[in-house]
Specification:
single chain; 221 residues; alpha/beta; Signal recognition particle alu RNA binding heterodimer, srp9/1; 2 domains; five-stranded mixed β-sheet
Length: 221
């Protein structure tokens, strides 16, 4: 074989090896990116049953909570079918007294008592998922106790407008263990509010969507 042809053949062979090496590296990079994307996406969290997701996102009123609501027990003295005296107490979540309190007992000393008059069955509108005021209290873990007024009974505390009571209730944050969810058809990818990380589940959030939003859960669709 002439020298020139051998040189050309060696150059072509070298170029072919270089192309194969480049192709191999491209293939490996594509595989790595695909694996990384699959593992790192939010939906790679642990698989949950849809019923468990609902229980975590919308825990019942009796579920334990690490924080004390600024509104405690509500006492209801019915005076008619759609009317009642409502006693309630609140303590500040901010301010010097609240900041100085280090125990629940000390915080309780800052509590103020009030009463109002209205209907707990009043619907709160679309923004609150169409739930009633009573449901809103229950969702926020505020106990409601129905009382029978004794003879000569008078409401305790200072009188407040019913609208002020409703506003105070809605300021309480409903409990939830879910921070946010992303919905892709029936697939739900979410993140817990605690150290449990992310999760994925499958189901229809349609009937629960308004309640999820009302609890402050970010819903991305």
């Amino acid at each position: 074989m002439p020298r020139n042809q051998r040189t050309v053949w060696k150059v072509e062979l070298k170029n072919n090896k270089s192309l194969k090496t480049v192709a191999l590296w491209v293939f490996l990079i594509v595989i790595f990116v695909a694996i990384y994307t699959s593992v790192s996406r939010p939906g790679a969290g642990r698989q949950e049953k849809f019923s468990d997701f609902v229980s975590n996102a919308l825990p019942p009123a009796y579920a334990a909570t690490g924080t004390v609501p600024t509104m405690e027990k509500v006492l209801v003295y019915a005076t008619g079918q759609n009317d009642a005296f409502i006693e309630y107490s609140v303590f500040p979540s901010t301010g010097a007294e609240a900041a100085a309190a280090t125990t629940a007992g000390e915080l309780a000393k800052t509590r103020t008592s009030h009463w109002t008059r209205g209907d707990l069955k009043m619907p709160l509108g679309v923004a609150e998922g169409g739930q009633t005021l009573y449901n809103a209290l229950s969702d926020r873990g505020i106990a409601v106790k129905f009382m029978t007024p004794a003879e000569g009974w008078k409401p305790n505390g200072t009188e407040e407008p019913f609208s002020a009571f409703v506003s105070e209730v809605l300021q309480q944050t409903p409990r939830t263990n879910v921070k946010q969810i992303t919905v892709r058809g029936k697939e739900i990818i979410g993140e817990y509010t605690n150290s449990r990380g992310s999760f994925t589940t499958v189901g229809d959030i349609g009937p629960y969507r308004q309640a999820l939003v009302a609890r402050g859960i970010t819903v991305v669709e």
